[in-house]
Structures are given as C-alpha cells and as structure tokens.
Amino acid sequence: MDLSIFLSSILFISLAYKLYQRLRFKLPPGPRPWPIVGNLYDIKPVRFRCFHEWSQTYGPIISVWFGSTLNVIVSNSELAKEVLKENDQQLADRHRSRSAAKFSREGKDLIWADYGPHYVKVRKVCTLELFTPKRLEALRPIREDEVTAMVESIFRDCTTPDNQGKSILVKKYLGTVAFNNITRLVFGKRFVNAEGIIEEQGKEFKAIVSNGLKLGASLAMAEHIPWLRWMFPLDEAAFAKHGARRDRLTRAIMEEHTVARQRSGNTKEHFVDALLTLQEKYDLSDDTVIGLLWDMITAGMDTTAISVEWAMAEVIKNPRVQQKAQEELDRVVGSDRVLTEADFPNLPYLQCVAKEALRLHPPTPLMLPHKANANVKIGGYDIPKGSNVHVNVWAIARDPAVWKEPLEFRPERFLEEDVDMKGHDFRLLPFGAGRRVCAGAQLGINLTTSMLGHLLHHFHWTPLQGVKAEEMDMSENPGLVAYMATSLQAVPTPRLPSHLYKRVAVDM
After folding, report:
1. SS3 71
2. Which CDD domains match (predicted)?
C-alpha cells in the first residue's frame, strides 16, 4: 500500500510540474509526452533521423522529453546560429550523465566541463598551446607514418595469391590508423608493432577504453528520471576501479615522459609532454591533465575512422567522383612518389570530397547536448534553465532550403561556393561552432583528407562482388557517433608502382 501511495504521489508531482512548465513557458511543439517516461519509448534508435522526422511534423524546433528532462532539438541553420552564436554563453554548459560525471571527475576536463573560468582556461591551453599550426605541423610525420603503414598493410593483404580480387573490411585498416595515430599524438606511443602485435600497455589501454564504453552504457532509464535513481544505484566500486586503472596507466606514461625529458633536456611535441610542461604555467591539476589526454583519445579515435569509411563508401558508390579525384591525384602527385599533406593546397577536389562526406555523414550527427544555464528564447520559444539543447547537424546539412540537391553526393558544390566547416557557416557543422567548437577540428580534417587521398591514389576501389553500387547499405547504427550499419567491404586494386607501397616509418 505504502509503495502505491508513494508512486501515485510521484506521478502527481511529475504531472503537476509538467503542467507548471507548460503554463509558465511557451515551449517548442513536439510529440505528446507520456507521464514519467516522456517520449523515451517513442524515440526510434537512430535518434537524429527520428528527430528529423518529427521536425517535418512539428517544425524546425521541437520539444522532446527524456523522462522528466526537456530536450530541445533544432534542425535548421538559422536556429543553429541562435543556439551556437547569439545565445552561446547561456547555452554553453554540459549535461553530464552520472557516468560522464564520474569519467570527467565532475567536469574537470574540457568536453564535460560547464562553461566558466575552468573551461575558459583549459580551452585556452588547447587553442594557444596544443592545437597550434606549429605543433600540428611538427606532428605531421606521425600522421604520414601511420597512413603509409595502412597503405602497406592493404597492399600486402590484397596482393597475396589467395586474396587477389577479394574484398577487404575497410574499417579494420582505418581503425588501426586512428588507434595508432591518436595514441602516438597523445601519449607518444605506438602500442602496436610493425607485425601488428599489441604490447602490454596497449592491451591495458584497449581494455580501459572498452570497459569505459561498457560502464557508460550500463545506466538506462534512471539517467532521465532523477527521482528513480535510488532504484538504479550507480556501481560506485566499478567506476572507482575503472578510474584508478585509467589513472595508473596514464600516470605511468606521464612518468616515462618526465624521466625521458629530464635525461635528454628536450621536450617532445606529443600532447602529454606539452601538458606536463604547461601544468604549472596554467595551474592544471593532475585530474585535468589526465582528463584532457583522455578527451583527445575519445574525441579523436572513432570519429576519423568513421568519416573516412563513409567517404570511401560514397566514392565507391559514385565512380565518377572516384575517377575525378584520381585524375587530380595523378596530375598533382603523379605515380613516382606518395602524397604528403604539403600537397593538400594543390588538391582542391580531394578536399571537396572529404568535405562533402562530412556534410552528408557528420560523425556526431547531434553534437553533444548544450545545457541552458539561464532561461533563453530560441526561435520565439522559451528554453527554461536546465534544459538540454541539441543541434541536429545531420538534418541541417540535408536541408533543401539551403542545399541544392542535398541528398546527392556532389563534391563540386564546394568548388562552386566556398563553405567554411569549422563553425563559421551554420549550414555545415561537423565540428560544431561557438564556444564549444571542436578544438581539434584542423587535426581531424588533415587526417581524414590524408587517409582518403592515400586510399584513392594507391588503389582503385570497387564494391563487394555481387553488390551493385546503388544497393550498398548507407544506413547508420544507433549511438552518439554514426558508424555504418553494415561495415564497408570493397575490392582494392593497386594502381601505382609496387615500391610506393612501403611504410614511411618515423620514430618520434
């Protein structure tokens, strides 16, 4: 009896609060929420597509209730500008789930920090120290090493007598580049050797990453209904164990770098070295240094591989684009050397192919939600303090009001009109915009363009045998990042002299 009274009271309070919100504020329209759960059971798994469908019914700004939390989704460029530029400061906080709060030590990093003095300081470190053109250029040999290692690996696998003419799983090779590249840039370590064998620290690193994903996914409904959390308590011990394990590995690597620096007197360009030498100058706690290093790992590892896989799927689906990109590469780079990042300015079409892939397939289609730290108005509607605001960059990049033939993969559109993709043009936002724009956007663009360029310069690509280009599955998996639902399998055919398929190894 007591429990039923308790649950009835909670239901009454919930409904009363909803009614109060609706009477006090002019909220955006949206699907009708159910008591307690809101719209949670109505949301289809691929959320950005679901929200886009709802926007066709209710308009470009909609209210969606995740349990008792109001989420506002905007789906056109004018509203995105209101969120990310005109009301940027009031909408620059972060909604932290319980797992995000644990992983980030309550926002001591950059990604999950609320907007305030800490965020401004850490952002300054990223902009003025870590992601400068000078440092990105200094780290270029690492990127080129890993991309040529990928080329060598594909060449070796597709030219063995048993495999000639057979397809490869493209994601496998892209994932290796992304993994090795990010661990070397951040930690100065290539955890996987030339034979593809992973060392002990690398095994531990991978175990920590997969355990973090598992822990993050373990909390469901209670995340959205705060007063239900007593029924779904956080496994404090598991999170504490995970945090200690992550810190132990990171501190061991930090200590190795400190010892090496003291021995040689030289500071290397890796992010771990940079942060250790800047720690005092910027008054960064160990939690913040560790949080920043892991922010770079999580933000940079999957997104690049995802972007290149989508780009390759589109190029294989559109042979005209592949031919045009290869003609440009043959003209500029030729067949007696390999592509380098220094060639990019002379390869405008290749850059447009990368940009068009990021338009149609942004790796984080909804960006991370922005949380209102004050009551604001967007599109004439009230956004109460504490609400979450999502920008559906996937929908904006396919909006027929601002894009001609939006669903067509046509890189030429960016030769006809130069559209910025680093947060200044609100039609194209693969890296976000405003105060929370991705700090590593240029690094992501460089690596995506380099991987794509090498794959197209070294190989001609055709679909899996028996699959017509127009039959390729171009749907997405559910989740925060948009993996292809069916991993790309394609047939590579070498198109350059065999001596150009060697890894250009560099030790740094």
Report:
1. strand
2. CYP98
Share of the chain above pLDDT 90, in %: 74
Average pLDDT, the chain: 91
Residue range 311-325, pLDDT digits in tens: 999 999 999 999 999
Can you read off the two tokens belonging to residue 378?
Answer: 């967007």
If you ran DSSP here, which 8-state letter would residue 16 be given? Answer: H
Closest among 142, 179, 181 to 341, alpha carbons compared? 142
Collapsed DSSP state (helix, strand, coil) of residue 377: strand
Tokens describing residue 174: 């892209």
Question: Is residue 217 very low, low, confident or very high in pLDDT (cuts 50, 70, 90)?
Answer: low
Burial of 294 (0-12, 13-18, 19+ CB in 10 A): buried
Distance from C-alpha of 19 to C-alpha of 93, rounded to nearest angstrom: 26
**How would residue 348 be classed by pLDDT, with cut points 50, 70 and 90?**
very high
Q: Which residue has the tokens 């003095």?
A: 117
Q: What is the dihedral of CA 156, 158, 163, 166, to 10 degrees?
A: 160
Q: Quick one: what percent of the chain has pLDDT higher than 70? A: 92
Distance CA(477)–CA(484), nearest Å, equals: 6
The alpha carbons of the chain give a radius of gyration, in whole angstroms, of 24
The kind and range of the H/E element at 494 are strand 489-494
Please tell me whether 352 is known to bind a ligand. no
> What is the distance of C-alpha 85 from the center of its chain?
21
Place of tokens 């197209």: 456
Angstrom CA distances, 150 to 6, 118, 185, 221, 351, stand at 60, 39, 17, 41, 20
Which one-letter amino acid corresponds to residue 276? L
With 0-12 / 13-18 / 19 or more C-beta atoms within 10 angstroms meaning exposed / middle / buried, residue 161 is exposed
Residue (of 309, 307, 305, 344) closest to 177 by Cα position? 305
Strand spans (E) along 295-408: 370-371, 376-378, 381-383, 388-391
Q: Is 390 helix (H, G, I), strand (E, B) or coil?
A: strand
CA dihedral 254, 176, 443, 418 (to 10 degrees): -170
**What are 377-416's pLDDT values in tens digits?**
999 999 999 999 999 999 999 999 999 999 999 999 999 9
User: 2-501 has which CATH code?
Assistant: 1.10.630.10
| CA nearest to 150, candidates 360, 339, 349, 345 | 339
Q: How many of the other CB atoms lie within 10 Å of CB of 481?
A: 16
Q: How far apart are CA 362 and CA 177, in angstroms?
A: 19
pTM assigned to the model: 0.92
Q: Which residues of 81-104 are buried (b: 16+ CB within 10 A; e: fewer)?
A: bbbbeebbebbbbbbbebbbebbb
